[in-house]
């Protein structure tokens, strides 16, 4: 049995304090409450966000402004916010639960459908049918992220599996070789850092912009 | 579970444990007024605050006055936040000209943020102005966190002192925690988050082009801006094509940092930490989970240091970690297994070097299963209530873990301060049970645990289960409550149970399919949130006052040591016993039934 050393306890015991005589009526509680609330509002609610904004705008202006990508001087989207794609010549993003349109930047949301909900199963069936219809020869199992709605409705990524699954369709629609398309995916792939941090993924907008750079969209249709 | 899932857990726990001693010691020094360097730097500002408030920092108070000060301060905070929301249309920093939310919604939000709950029944992007977000919500992110921490510190003082009449000065404690603990660390985290892509600006929403135009259906609106319906009352739809996307903007990073650091959890955006502008990649995800665990874990060291025996703190932390790991493992395993109904459709859910696999409904690719379930388990065990994935779409057992995490009383790390003080209450109950078994007067840290302490502990521990179970029972019995759930069957029941569990335990996360922005849920959950926060706090402060006044019992051969494996097992057993006994019947009606339905046939 180890003794709890009393001397250490005594060090934590109260030093000389003026024990307040008031458990009853005494100095107002209202004044410190009101003044402290207002001071803290200014400090943590005004000064703190303004200082952080100042630092952010000086050190990381592009990130602080939303990581916007431009093409030909025109803002063409954000690296971080996904966009919907439906043509055969573009990589498709994940299904989005935002309304009224998919990837609505002002309605970030998941579907919140439970795993047993018939509406989920119906939705997945419809997505599978659409993918199969766009690529009839492809009978490979479909990567799960391509038929399930993301948490934010704005997921900018698909898994590498989902990208490679679509490579054949893209190559045909763009009249590119399969190797070219797969090479683009590999060039834009993100792998987990040390196998721990992150997931195998590719940014859909960046990948599609790279596709356009290889072969402009006008040549696709 | 994949090797990556174990590896991420190990990396996370290792980094968190590295911070426990230095940061715990720092917090102890701050609270004891030791002049470490940030205290010396901020000293002038601190003294100015006391002068303006008319507070003498050398004067301490007993527990009753401490509690009254805390309550008055929190009530005023709620009133200010309510007013700020309702008046936001007339105030600056509202570039989208958003009107004030309706009274029942503003009431719910005010109580929710002041209590560190951050339950959100509103859609932030289209409800709150920048001013409301920063000068209202961000402020309460700080102050509610500080409130939790000072209550824990008061309880620690009650255990550390003897024959004392006072437990501290609320104004001084609150000011010190905010100035020296929360503000500087939040600022560091905020800048780190911006560097990785979290936005921080005051611009109005930004419009960009879409690479491919999108065509969709939406309800027609007439000239007055009202939705049009046909004779049968059905909405009239029209087909719209747009080649533009609107990007939301705002001061996000500054709020995101304190949202995690203060275990608050209220998102700047509706999708919370799943939103790419709140949590853009795996690195920010790691920063955010570390921010969540930093203070709750380090406070155990603060506790050990202040009572003069750091083994006491490590024992509490060990109990928390031992409870946490299996919860994470079960949640992760359940999500990685995926949804058998999708496998049947020919969907590939197997983990490989090309995909995370698993149940990806309601999850983001960049977090996969490991990053989603680590965040999810941690956010629900720490009362953070943030989410980087949608718990409503978790598999039944994965979702049950998030629900059960909260039902344990938010003591597995728990909310800042709240986790430690609640865990110490369980420790008191634990030594009481052990004392009964061996027939000795129970003691904790040399303090006799007597009937007053046990009464107050019972109040603190039992009020939340009562609120959860009675609240859920009422909601499933009235039509206003039954109207809430999105999902049919057992899952719909889980949504209601989750809402009341989250509110009573001040977590704030949701099975978010539930439509909670109604008068019934806003008011019912608002009241549950309020009682679930302050009833236990008053009981804890009462225990602090009572313990501080007691003499210290000398250690004898009969004293049960409250560090070692026996005590850790006792503490874990007490937490599980209370949680399981209270909630297994309710869980059986929700996720357990759903699990059986999914895997039968």
Detailed description of the structure:
With 221 residues, chain A is mostly helical. Chain A has helices spanning 6-12, 30-59, 61-64, 118-134, 160-174, 178-188, 204-214; strands at residues 18-19, 68-71, 74-78, 142-143, 157-159, 189-190, 201-203. Chain A folds into two domains: 31-61; 67-219, no CATH class. The longest helix of chain A has 30 residues, at 30-59. By secondary structure, chain B is mainly alpha-helical. Among the domains of chain B are: 18-202 and 253-303, no CATH class; 206-247, no CATH class. In chain B, 61% of the residues lie in helices and 5% in strands. Chain B is built from 18 helices and six strands. Chain B has helices at 3-31, 37-53, 63-86, 103-114, 130-160, 170-195, 252-261, 282-306, 310-337, 340-343, 368-381, 396-407, 418-438, 451-477, 479-482, 489-504, 519-549, 565-599; strands spanning 59-60, 206-219, 237-247, 347-348, 443-444, 447-448. In chain B, a hairpin with a 2-residue loop joins β5 and β6 (447-448). The model of chain B has no long low-confidence stretch (mean pLDDT 95). The interface between A and B is large, with 129 and 158 residues. β1 (18-19) of chain A pairs parallel with β1 (59-60) of chain B, so a sheet runs across the interface.
Provide a compact summary of the structure.
The complex is a heterodimer of chains A (221) and B (601). Chain A is mainly alpha-helical and 221 residues long.
What is the topology?
The complex is a heterodimer of chains A (221) and B (601).
Chain A: H1 6-12, E1 18-19, H2 30-59, H3 61-64, E2 68-71, E3 74-78, H4 118-134, E4 142-143, E5 157-159, H5 160-174, H6 178-188, E6 189-190, E7 201-203, H7 204-214
Antiparallel strand pairs in A: 2-3, 5-7, 6-7
Helix pairs in contact in A: 5-6, 6-7
Chain B: H1 3-31, H2 37-53, E1 59-60, H3 63-86, H4 103-114, H5 130-160, H6 170-195, E2 206-219, E3 237-247, H7 252-261, H8 282-306, H9 310-337, H10 340-343, E4 347-348, H11 368-381, H12 396-407, H13 418-438, E5 443-444, E6 447-448, H14 451-477, H15 479-482, H16 489-504, H17 519-549, H18 565-599
Antiparallel strand pairs in B: 2-3, 5-6
């Amino acid at each position: 049995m180890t003794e709890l050393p009393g001397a250490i306890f005594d060090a934590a015991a109260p030093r000389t304090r003026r024990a307040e005589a008031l458990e009853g009526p005494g100095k107002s509680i209202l004044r410190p409450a009101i003044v402290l609330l207002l001071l803290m509002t200014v400090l943590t609610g005004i000064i703190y966000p303004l200082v952080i904004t100042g630092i952010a705008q000086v050190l990381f202006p592009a990130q602080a402004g939303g990581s916007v990508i431009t093409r030909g001087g025109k803002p063409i989207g954000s690296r971080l916010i996904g966009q919907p794609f439906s043509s055969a010549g573009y990589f498709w993003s994940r299904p989005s639960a935002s309304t009224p349109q998919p990837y609505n930047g002002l309605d970030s949301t998941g579907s919140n459908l439970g795993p047993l909900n018939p509406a989920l199963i119906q939705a997945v069936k419809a997505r599978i049918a659409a993918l199969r219809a766009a690529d009839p020869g492809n009978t490979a199992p479909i990567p799960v992220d391509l038929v399930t709605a993301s948490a934010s409705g704005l997921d900018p990524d698909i898994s590498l599996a989902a990208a490679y699954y679509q490579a054949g369709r893209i190559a045909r629609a763009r009249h590119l070789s399969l190797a070219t398309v797969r090479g683009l995916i590999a060039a834009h792939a993100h792998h987990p850092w040390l196998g721990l941090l992150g997931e195998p993924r590719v940014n859909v907008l960046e990948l599609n912009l790279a596709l356009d750079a290889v072969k402009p969209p006008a040549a696709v249709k | 579970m994949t090797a990556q899932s174990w590896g991420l857990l190990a990396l996370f726990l290792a980094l968190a444990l590295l911070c426990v001693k230095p940061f715990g010691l720092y917090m102890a020094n701050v609270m004891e007024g030791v002049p470490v360097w940030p205290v010396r730097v901020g000293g002038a500002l601190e003294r100015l605050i006391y002068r303006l408030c008319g507070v003498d920092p050398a004067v301490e108070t007993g527990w009753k006055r401490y509690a009254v000060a805390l309550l008055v301060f929190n009530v005023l905070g709620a009133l200010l936040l309510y007013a700020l929301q309702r008046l936001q249309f007339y105030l600056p920093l509202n570039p989208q000209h958003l009107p004030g939310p309706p009274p029942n919604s503003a009431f719910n939000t005010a109580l929710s943020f002041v209590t560190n709950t951050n339950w959100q029944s509103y859609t932030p992007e289209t409800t709150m102005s920048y001013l409301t977000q920063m000068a209202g919500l961000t402020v309460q992110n700080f102050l509610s966190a500080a409130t939790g921490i000072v209550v824990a510190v008061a309880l620690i003082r009650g255990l550390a002192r003897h024959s004392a009449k006072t437990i501290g000065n609320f104004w001084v404690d609150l000011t010190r925690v905010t100035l020296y603990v929360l503000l500087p660390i939040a600022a560091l985290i905020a800048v780190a988050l911006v560097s990785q892509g979290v936005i921080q600006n005051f611009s109005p929403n930004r419009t960009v082009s879409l690479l491919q135009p999108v065509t969709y259906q939406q309800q027609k609106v007439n000239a007055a801006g009202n939705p049009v319906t046909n004779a049968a009352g059905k909405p009239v739809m029209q087909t719209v094509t747009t080649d533009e996307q609107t990007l939301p903007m705002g001061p996000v990073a500054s709020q995101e940092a304190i949202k995690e650091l203060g275990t608050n959890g209220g998102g700047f955006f509706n999708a919370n930490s799943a939103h790419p502008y709140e949590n853009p990649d795996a690195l920010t995800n790691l920063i955010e989970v570390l921010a969540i665990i930093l203070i709750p874990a380090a406070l155990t060291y603060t506790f050990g240091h202040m009572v003069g025996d750091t083994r006491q703190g490590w024992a509490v932390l060990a109990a928390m970690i031992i409870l946490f790991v299996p919860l994470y493992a079960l949640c992760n395993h359940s999500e990685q297994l995926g949804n058998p109904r999708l496998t049947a459709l020919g969907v590939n859910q197997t983990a490989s070097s090309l995909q995370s696999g698993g149940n990806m409904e309601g999850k983001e690719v960049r977090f996969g299963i490991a990053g989603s379930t680590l965040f999810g388990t941690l956010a629900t065990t720490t009362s953070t209530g943030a989410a980087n994935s949608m718990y409503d779409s978790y598999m039944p057992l994965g979702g049950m873990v998030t629900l059960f995490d909260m039902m344990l009383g938010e003591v597995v790390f728990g909310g800042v301060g709240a986790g430690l003080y609640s865990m110490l209450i369980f420790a008191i109950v634990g030594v009481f049970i052990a004392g009964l078994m061996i027939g000795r007067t129970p003691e904790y840290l040399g303090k006799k645990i007597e009937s007053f302490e046990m009464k107050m502990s019972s109040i603190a521990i039992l009020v939340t289960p009562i609120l959860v179970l009675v609240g859920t029972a009422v909601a499933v019995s009235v039509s206003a409550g039954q109207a809430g759930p999105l999902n049919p069957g057992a899952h719909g029941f889980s949504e209601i149970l989750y809402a009341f569990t989250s509110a009573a335990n001040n977590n704030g996360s949701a099975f978010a399919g539930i439509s909670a922005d109604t008068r019934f849920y806003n008011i019912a959950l608002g009241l549950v949130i309020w009682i679930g926060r302050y009833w236990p706090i008053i009981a804890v402060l009462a225990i602090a006052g009572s313990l501080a006044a007691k003499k210290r019992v000398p250690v004898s051969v009969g004293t049960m040591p409250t560090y070692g494996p026996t005590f850790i097992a006792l503490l874990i057993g007490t937490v599980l016993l209370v949680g399981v006994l209270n909630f297994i019947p309710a869980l059986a009606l929700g996720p357990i039934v759903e699990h059986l339905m999914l895997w039968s046939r």
